Amino acid sequence: MARKIKLQKKSASQLAVDALYAEAGKRASASVCCPVAQLKSFVELCLSQSCGKCTPCRIGLARAADILSDILSGAAEQEDFTVLKDLAQTILQSADCAIGFEAARQILSVTEASEKDFLSHVTKGECTVTFDAVPCSAACPAHVDIPAYIALTKEGRYKDAIRMIRYDNPFPAACALICEHPCEGGCRRSLVDAPVNIREIKRVAVDHAGNVPVPECLEKTGKKIAIVGGGPSGLTAAYYLQLMGHETTVFEQRAKLGGMMRYGIPRYRLPERYLNKDIDAILSTGVKTYLNTSVDEEKFAEILREYDAVYLPIGAQGANLSVEGADADGVYSAVSLLRSMGDKKAPSFKGKRVVVIGGGNVAMDCTRTAKRLGAKSVKCVYRRRIEDMTAQPDEVQGAIAEGCEVIPMLSPERIVKDENGKVTAFVGKPQIPGPVEHGRPKPVDADKDPVVILCDIVVIAIGQQIDSDAFVKRGVPAKRGRFSAEESCLCCEIGGTPVFAGGDALTGPSTVVRAVEAGKVAAAAIDDRLGFDNVLERTVEVPAAKAGSAPARGRIDAGERAAEERNGDFDIMACPLTAEEAAAECSRCLRCDHYGMGAFRNGRTEEW
Amino acid sequence: MVNLTIDGKEIRVQKGTTILEAAKKAGIRIPTLCYLKEVSETAACRICLVKVEGQERLSASCNTLCEEGMVVSTTAPEVLKARKTNLKLLLSRHNTSCTTCVRDGNCTLQELSKEMNLLDNDFPVSFPKKKWDEALLLQRDASKCVQCLRCVNICGKIQSVNVWELRGTGAGAHVGIRDGLSFGEAGCTYCGQCITHCPTGALSERDDTEVFRSFADDAELTTVVQIAPAVRTGFAEATGLTKAQGTEQRMAAALKKLGADYVFSTDFTADLTIMEEGNELLRRIAEKGTAAEAAKRGEKVFYPMFTSCCPGWVRFLKINYPDMAGCLSSAKSPQQMFGAVTKTYFAEKTGIPAEKIRCVSIMPCTAKKYEAAVREVNSTGGRDVDLSLTTRELGRMLRGTDVAALPEVGFDSLLGEYTGAGSIFGATGGVMEAALRTAYFVVNGRDPKADAFKEVRAESADPALVKCWRDAEFKLGDATLSVAVASGLKNARALVEAIRAGLVMYDFVEIMACPGGCAGGGGQPFTDGEEKAFARGKELYRLDASRAVRFSHKNMEVLKLYETYLGSPLSEKAEELLHTNQETWEL
After folding, report:
1. CATH 3.40.50.1860 fits B2-90, yes or no
2. What is the pLDDT of residue B169?
């Protein structure tokens, strides 16, 4: 009898199902939906994959789906919700394979995290989820009207596009280059092909708009607001408060404004002329600034006395040097290295062997900066896997392309120095992925010998501290250095003066657009708190959406200058879209402000 | 301008015109369901689909703009098929029970089904069932909702009240109450605009016609009916008569036919309201001075006296700006004045005991049902107005009656006379104008020209041309009186906010909750897609112009009421019967 063994070949049907799964993956990230309905779909998907051998999976998942249907239709009682959770527990305990028990794990996870939603369905027959009309704008922390500025850019109305962006974010130029674009994660175009290249479209508008004057400020209110910290959050708050008619003063510790955008983000990512353009526009609203002015306890007390409100976006400037041997000559904190770049006092790494410790974007900035400073070799060591890095994947790939090395699964043990106190080596302890915690495997010491990397320079890029002591001593609440505030950014009131906090000092080290968000929220809250209801109106007219949707076509990325060309200088790395590319990319926008829910909820807010 | 072709016809339209409006202009009908011009252009129902040449998929004509060179087909096979399928889908979720539906014969869904010759539905029918308190004057039957979202849009965009909301997502998405509140918590003003813009029977007023029958059929009871000014502008439509047939006198005859013992016009108490409210205004000015004087003194904010005859507005103000309730005129609305006078003066003069009288009002309004039930507004022991019916309910009671064949009769006397000033109460600006006519007389001792104050009338039916509010200044003796008029609650909100912010200062402000005033009231008959408030208002102004008497203070029966019963305006008796404490109403 012939053997029944043959080459594997995917059928057309199987290929279609594979494509379906890929689609499902895209849909999964596209929008905020009812957790009950999503869980029901997921359980049904899992059930359809079950082989049907075992009871918990074959019948248990089916019953779970039934209960979820009942919850959705309003037929379920509160008890059914308990039954669902118990059932999931049993499936988790007793299913024979991952098809069953992993499905159950998700049931438990979603029911726990979304209990409120389930109970609302069960007790009131009401879903708590509100559908976001325009997913990109909803995903953008600053809620910039993205379809509007894409449409304006498409029509060549670049100045209006900048006005439209500034309405929600006064850093169009900086964000055109360095925003981590969470907007794209929500882009509905990904259901057709891939998200619109929103950030590069913004750069097109920025590059072609020339100077765009800021709107006129509203009538003076006579209120004075102090802002401690001239980073993205502080300047955002200053901008909107000025427009609302208040008088703002920014106290900045360093010689120039911009915070981490100037003293953290390297110039090859954000050239000064872009940053200065935004800052000049913000200052043109009449913001007063005190540069080279540190705010200590005494100064803070004085500010509290003299101003009607205080905003504390002080950033996260403090270095973390918690590695043995960090006092050696040749050890830099990421903060100090990048700050010296901002101050144009760059050290020379010519011919040096550099080790960078860390896996975040800042570590990548240090790695690529070290390369550009002439280092002979740059090795970035990280205690987890590459896929666990918090750095943007593009950044990691970019660093590797530029000739840097990324060494994962190596935890810093100590820095070795010679008799003169100079760095000679980095010693790392090899790691192995342990149990998953918060979505990432926790690294644990592997049964391997320590690794010694000979080097001259070590840059420690593992977290930043918040220097909030001066403020905490005067009564501003904080936990482990981070300020505590309400959703409105209000921290406390000291001697009748309301104190607000935002940016990295509130959230911990985060992105520019999150800092902008906090600045906006704080500006609105300060205006409210001072008894005003100043409304900033959106006046730019948005081009009407055209009939029909553009068919599927590839997303265009302008890319970067060649790795071997760019790794020797600090000139801007990202290439701009050409006119042809910009037109094509703009036309990929599906205009969710007009189609779908946009048609109902008007697609945009006229004011905030 | 943009050139395009629709169904082979070359058309030239303004830039920014939708395909739907362009087709309409060219005489090409595209069926619609969820569409409500400029209010609801959500493209949700997908009935108004058309084919645009070169496009892979069909477009919703209601929110697709015409483009140069566009070639559109409204009848391509795929268009007709998609429309029909979408209608079938909607019907598969709709409780089709036309024979017992309040909207039978005036239902957009029914019309579309007829138009598309839909004789069966392949999709199994199932619809949501939701409990609704049958005692509420606003009734919602979720099983008939097609989620056109018009109610959401009207309540939000035109009234700024936002009772309704699209809640949930996916298959569970439904029209519900904002933020998951109960209906009572949502701040509904009972204006009824959601009812008059609902394309199906999902929204309606509580039907109280059986209560009327129980009054009329009881030989022991005397049924006294009052008919509001604006009802006559909707009567013909509600009963299927021509305008010529649907006269005021035939309306009176119809009510007699239904069993009313007396038929009066609320215009009578509209004149009475003017006497009270006009004098209240003058008293207020004497006490507090005018807005102009306040401005001269450098005062930053000045609260006016607001009219109080519209219960939707009164509720709106009390819910949203409770601190301003005291700014409302204490004069009761004409409906309530009528009830109070009927159960006292009328009872006394006719010798019919008040407890044997049932006072019924026919109103263009749904909120009047609420007002009649407010405890504080009743001053004769029980209810002054026992029952308030809408114009539509009147129409429903008259089904099966050959109204056109009824001989015309006059209104009864005693409370029957009315003037042109009373009639224009039903149009936005009418109360203001009527009050100014009488205030002028009180101050100057002579009548103004009847049309002297027509500046406060609505200027246009086109919402785009209607300002948030209209204002004017008039000389009244030595004083300068600043007045403002608004209709529609979004406009009212804007006006109130401007007053509170000190941006404007007025002495007297008239507000009607429904756009265009009572003529476009939530209790009026309606036809999908037609806004008739402005035209009906014009009709009221025509009636005003045709009246022999156009001043409330010249209403002889009103004067007789004062002479023989009330004394003078604002007298103690008048205060007791015709005024209310606005701050103690239950909401």
Report:
1. no
2. 84
